[in-house]
């Protein structure tokens, strides 16, 4: 479940980064800032995908990450605590990057001339966003499909 969710979230973030690079010619962190003023749809979708990547409840990252952390804490407490620390640091870095790169004042003339997502790009991103929210709000849909395979695999161990 985690691998599937990671694939959806990572592909969405890479697509958004590609859309930004196509418009700006760079994704240099220093050149960004104020993107939200020119691209509100892009910024909102990037925020959703960032939240999914750090496992916020309501997104597809939460059920998988919760199940993994619960299992690791149960089997090896030290590794579980280290994993929890990694989750906290990842969230701090992701939200800090989001704030500095997309919010605040416009620092670059290229950013001032950006246009928001086109219809085709928005359609692609909305399909991925739908998957994030569907699995996040109703994880049993995916868990029920993978449970028999997971059970058979564990019995083989």
TrEMBL record:
Residues spanning the membrane: 6-21, 41-59, 79-98, 122-141
Enzyme Commission number: 1.6.5.11
Alphabetical list of InterPro entries matching this protein: NADH_UbQ_OxRdtase, ND/Mrp_TM
Keyword Cell membrane: no
GO annotation, cellular component aspect: endomembrane system; membrane
Domain of life where this protein originates: Bacteria
Keywords of this entry: Membrane, Oxidoreductase, Transmembrane, Transmembrane helix
Location of the protein in the cell: Endomembrane system; Membrane
Membrane topology classification: Multi-pass membrane protein
UniProt GO BP: ATP synthesis coupled electron transport; electron transport coupled proton transport
One protein family per Pfam: Proton_antipo_M
Domain NADH:quinone oxidoreductase/Mrp antiporter transmembrane intervals: 2-89
GO molecular function, one term: NADH dehydrogenase activity
Annotated protein name in UniProt: NADH-quinone oxidoreductase subunit M
Naturally occurring in which organism (per UniProt): Candidatus Venteria ishoeyi
Record lineage: Bacteria, Pseudomonadati, Pseudomonadota, Gammaproteobacteria, Thiotrichales
């Amino acid at each position: 479940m985690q691998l599937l969710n990671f694939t959806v979230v990572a592909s969405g973030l890479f697509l958004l980064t590609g859309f930004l690079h196509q418009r700006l010619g760079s994704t240099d962190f220093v050149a960004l800032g104020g993107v939200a003023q020119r691209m509100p749809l892009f910024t909102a979708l990037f925020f959703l995908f960032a939240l999914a990547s750090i496992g916020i409840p309501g997104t597809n990252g939460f059920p998988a990450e919760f199940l993994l952390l619960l299992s690791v804490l149960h089997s090896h407490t030290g590794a579980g605590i280290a994993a929890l620390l990694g989750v906290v640091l990842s969230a701090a870095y992701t939200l800090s990057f989001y704030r500095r790169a997309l919010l605040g004042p416009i620092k670059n003339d290229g950013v001032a001339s950006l246009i928001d997502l086109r219809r085709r790009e928005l359609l692609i991103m909305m399909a991925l966003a739908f998957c994030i929210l569907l699995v996040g709000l109703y994880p049993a849909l995916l868990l029920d499909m993978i449970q028999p395979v997971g059970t058979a695999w564990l019995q083989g161990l």
